[in-house]
Specification:
The protein is α/β, with parallel strands linked by helices and 248 residues long. The protein contains 7 helices and 10 strands. It has helices at residues 9-26, 38-54, 80-92, 109-122, 159-164, 183-188, 202-210, and strands spanning 2-6, 31-34, 62-65, 67-69, 99-100, 128-131, 153-156, 177-180, 191-196, 228-233. The structure holds fructose -6-phosphate. Fructose -6-phosphate binds next to helix 2.
Length: 248
């Protein structure tokens, strides 16, 4: 694992967007997985700007959505579908064949997991996975206690996720289960970027980077990834003991 510290959310997001651009320039048919949420929103916006400025061709790459709230329709503004559609797919004019998202309204969510795993395995592995970190240390919806050896799966959401998740939904939502890529996908991925910004992420970043590697705190798995970068802004990195050992 490598820790990288940035001045602010903008600098961090700019670097993450640049990583996508560089990858696609080298490998036009790259497989890219992204989380939704507050953290990667700026990365998406900067990516769109860079793609247009540099005329990068994303038409051959495959896009994998990290997770989705079970039972929440794509038309709901709080859904991951909605985020990707508006922040990425429409602005970049992705073709539907390029996109793989969980159908969280499916009557058979297990089947959705198998479909997602097949989509990834058919293409080899994920080239670049960009994830966030939850207030309970989750990655995607890999909640505390999850196996490190799961591929896609359905999971009961942790209380923290249900509470914090309300921020995405105007008027609230009933959140019970999530459907998510597993941490085995993360371990298999060629490169993983975990993004975190703001003082509210300082404690979880400390545990992820300097705590014990344990499935009780899923983001600690980053410590085991040879090509995993934890990318934190100054605020999110502010509780790290060894922060000076890791210049950006
Ligand atoms: C969302 C996801 C979640 C978030 C995490 C942080 O697709 O996978 O694990 O990355 O909860 O969310 P934000 O970025 O809103 O703080």
């Amino acid at each position: 694992m490598t820790l990288k510290i940035y001045k602010d959310h903008h600098q961090l997001s700019d670097t993450a967007a640049e990583e996508i651009i560089e990858l696609v320039k080298q490998k036009p048919d790259a497989v890219i997985c992204l989380a939704s949420g507050e953290t990667p929103r700026l990365t998406c916006r900067l990516l769109i700007k860079k793609v247009k400025e540099q005329q990068v061709d994303l038409s051959q790459c495959t896009f994998i959505g990290l997770d989705e709230w079970a039972g929440i329709p794509p038309s709901n503004e709080g859904s991951c579908h909605y985020f990707f559609q508006h922040e990425l797919f429409e602005p970049l004019q992705f073709r539907s064949e390029q996109i793989h998202l969980f159908d969280a309204l499916s009557a058979n969510l297990e089947d959705e997991c198998l479909k997602m795993d097949s989509a990834i395995f058919e293409r080899g592995v994920i080239d670049l996975m960009i994830v966030g970190i939850g207030m309970n240390g989750h990655i995607g919806f890999n909640e505390p206690g999850v196996s490190f050896n799961n591929y896609s799966h359905v999971i009961n959401l942790d209380e923290t996720t249900v509470t914090v998740g309300q921020k995405y939904f105007k008027g609230g939502a009933v959140l019970k289960q999530g459907i998510t890529l597993g941490l085995k996908h993360l371990q298999d991925a060629k490169k993983v970027l975990l993004l975190a910004n703001g003082i509210k992420k300082a404690e979880v970043i400390k545990k992820a980077v300097e705590g014990v590697v344990t499935n009780s705190f899923p983001a600690s798995i980053m410590q085991t990834h040879a090509n995993g970068w934890v990318m934190a802004d100054e605020e999110a990195a502010s509780l790290l003991d060894k922060r000076n050992n890791y210049p950006a």
